[in-house]
């Protein structure tokens, strides 16, 4: 952050003045939740890492958070240290929307952060649900039961644009798109935006794009800087000012099953996710 504006504000990695977003004021009451889907059909871009750490960051600011694992790989559940065999998962809720959602909610060891886990069973969901009436709105109906109890619900989508992801987009108020600062970052984003537009048109008129989040950014490489520049050219202010740097701390933290905000709270990456939470509150995406 060497560059500065005329009045000495540093210029951030997205080329805009780097603001300090205020610490969110404590909430007097909780709910109803704003539901945010973390979505990108490209694999390995940081959806799950962002779900875990953003969820923990919101919890740290006193928000009541529900993280929904919506990927049969169960990486979000594993990353929060929750074993998923022989417990009710999101799949059971999808199959029986009358079932009490609380049966599948697990309290994580992070205060204020709950999880609806997933496991490989969920991979059968697309096949099972394809003949259901209103098959795109099943997750929405499930989450409606508990939305009043949380301030924010984050849905960690699988890397596909199939029926599960469409369910997540139909349930969501907003979408957050993590993008890895790599050469093909923008490939596929047009298709994703098109999918969001279709969902808005047919299923969920009020869905908004909450932002694109650059992840695995390495300020030392020209490549990372160029990719980010191109993303900002294409999406302007929809690109969140907070950028997540590339660091080995994330793989380390996932292995130990805790968010980086707990594993290494002083680490710049933990600070970045806290800042992301503050930015989303400042943008009005979360109370
Ligand atoms: N900022 C980062 N720096 C370094 N490594 C990271 C960072 N963010 C995520 N990773 C690592 O990159 C890999 C992919 O991240 P993650 O699982 O969050 O992506 P994903 O989009 O959820 O993947 P999938 O599409 O498979 O669900 C993981 O090994 C993770 O630990
Ligand atoms: Mg994932």
TrEMBL record:
Enzyme type, top EC level: hydrolase
Listed Pfam families: AAA_31 (PF13614)
Assigned EC number: 3.6.-.-
Domain AAA: 34-208
Entry-linked InterPro entries: AAA_dom (IPR025669), DNA_Partitioning_ATPase (IPR050678), P-loop_NTPase (IPR027417)
Signal peptide: none
Keywords: Hydrolase
One Gene Ontology MF term: hydrolase activity
Ranges where the record places region Disordered: 1-22
General function of this protein: May play a role in septum formation.
Family: Belongs to the ParA family.
Protein's name according to its UniProt entry: Sporulation initiation inhibitor protein Soj
